[in-house]
Amino acid sequence: MEKRSNFTSGLAFVLAAAGSAVGLGNIWRFPYLAAKYGGGIFLLVYLVLVVTFGFTLMVAEVALGRKTGLSAIGAFKVLNKKYCFIGWLASLVPIIILPYYSVIGGWVLKYLGAYLGGAHTAMADGNYFTNFISSTSEPLLYFFIFAAITFFIVLLGVKKGVEATSKFLMPLLVLLSIVIAVYSVTRPGAMEGLVYYLKPDFSKFSVNLVLAALGQMFYSMSLAMGIMITYGSYMKKTANLEKSVRQIEWFDTGIAFLAGLIIIPAVFAFSNGEVNAGPGLMFMTLPKIFEHMGLSTLIGVLFFVLVLFAALTSAISLMETIVSILQDRFKWKRPVCCIVVFIGMLILGAPASLGFGSWSSFTVLGLSILDFMDFVSNSVLMPIVALLTCVFVAWIIGTKAVAEEVKLSSDFHGEKLFNVMCKYIAPICIIAILISSVLNALGIITL
Ligand code: PHE
Fold first, then answer.
1. CB 370 within 8 Å of CB 101
2. Is 4 among the domain residues?
3. Which residues of the chain have pLDDT under 50?
4. N or C: which end of the chain has fewer CB atoms below 10 A?
């Protein structure tokens, strides 16, 4: 059997895992939710959830991966054969997400190309986006290019592909976010939005806010989809597991926070505080705002480079996870696994792309194909996998098994927190998200 690859250092692991965590969710979804749910108070609740809930699940997943040296299916199977179905369910999530995530990655590429080509005025018109996604060949072409880039990087392997790309792109990503955020908050009229974003207004606290923050946290930290198990399996036994998880948390939350600084004050200054939900925010509102802000070509290019890097490192982690599962399961060579996944993602992604154009009459539960894939993976499967993972760790193998793995490399400072969260608090909260997101989708409640 091929020897399992390893990241070369603890830092490499942190950058690769942060590369997975920092994605479209941070840059586009977090600011939109923060603006919708009262700004500062959302930020505060989100932070608390990250360091308690997110910490617990991430430690559990990374430890399961490192302990077994296997990706999701194998990891659950080795620890207890009966529960290998949790690994199967977890693996379904990246299989569903990768194709549609790459369709959106293609849109980002298109926007970057258009800004580079100087089309900023045309892009500020709301119809630009609708016309683009409802056409047939152009979105498919960009989707293909994005998928191909991801494919080539993953083909290069864990060290030369995943690790090298993250080490190069992640620092650039931080730099870009800081530069654009500074520009945005120093625009005239930005103050009002800044105060809204940073000053918690406790009267805006609600249960819906907590549920929205919880769901966002899962997605943003790439939890409950086997990714952290796979990356954990590439982590050296000597690397400090707890500290690495803390660093990933701060990385992920830091970029989300900066994205809020970029978007919320600008929306207040140039768009009357109205935040568009869904893809409209990134692809329709922002180009309009950039047009008013000045330096629109430069800002547009920098911003979409930032989004592209974020989306690419996330797509790489999704593909790597599936490839690693195939390698573990069927013992195929890496290139074979990569080709199989590439073809699969093209087949599943094409309908998601066409769903906004020639196939738009085809909907499920009133959702477009892409939105439906998003709903099944994020709102249904992920909470179920997260719940099962907690139950598995707390009641089947025991939290001690995870603690032992953590302690191989350092003390486990958060052990008490981990135990209580994993056994009681996390499962209850996850059941709440699951029920609420399904009721929301069926139109019974509105989140
Ligand atoms: N965590 C990524 C984000 O915030 C999303 C993602 C989901 C990445 C699934 C990989 C896998 O956008």
1. no
2. no
3. 1
4. N
Which atom of ligand 1 is nearest the CA belonging to 321?
11
Distance 110 CA to ligand 1 centre (A): 20
> What confidence score (pLDDT) does residue 214 get?
86
Residue nearest to atom 9 of ligand 1 (CA): 222
Residue 5 lies in a domain: no
Is 1 a domain residue?
no
Q: How does pLDDT run across 235-245, given as a tens digit for each residue?
A: 999 999 999 99
Place of tokens 């299916």: 73
Nearest Cα to Cα of residue 296 among 123, 108, 130, 107: 123
Neighbours of 416 (CB within 10 A): 9
- Residues 58-106 have pLDDT tens digits of 999 999 999 999 999 999 999 999 999 999 999 999 999 999 999 999 9
DSSP string, 366-378: TB-HHHHHHIIII
Would you say 146 and 139 are in contact if contact means Cβ atoms under 8 Å apart? no
The residue assigned the tokens 């249960």 is 207
CA–CA gap between residue 195 and residue 145 (Å, rounded) = 41
User: pTM higher than 0.85, yes or no?
Assistant: yes
Domain holding 335, by residue range, is: 10-441
Q: Which two tokens stand for residue 170?
A: 């992640």
Residue nearest to atom 8 of ligand 1 (CA): 314
What is the reported pLDDT for 447? 64
Both tokens assigned to 70: 């296997």
Instruction: Report CA 241 to chain centroid distance, whole Å.
Output: 21
Tokens of 298: 């430069």
pLDDT at 109: 97
Token digits for 251? 């990385």
Q: CATH number for the domain including 160?
A: 1.10.4160
Q: Which amino acid is at 162?
A: V
Closest ligand 1 atom to Cα of 21: 1
Domain count for the chain: 1
Q: How far apart are the two ends of the chain, measured CA to CA in Å? A: 49
pLDDT score recorded for residue 367: 85
Residue 263 resides in a domain: yes
d(CA 205, CA 215): 16
- pLDDT on residue 331: 93
Q: Is 19 in the pocket of ligand 1 (CB under 6 A)?
A: no
Residue 5: name the closest of 216, 173, 187, 230 by CA: 230
Angle, in degrees to the nearest 10, between helices 191-198 and 241-270: 140
Question: Do residues 67 and 270 make contact, with C-beta atoms less than 8 angstroms apart?
Answer: no
Residue length of the chain: 447
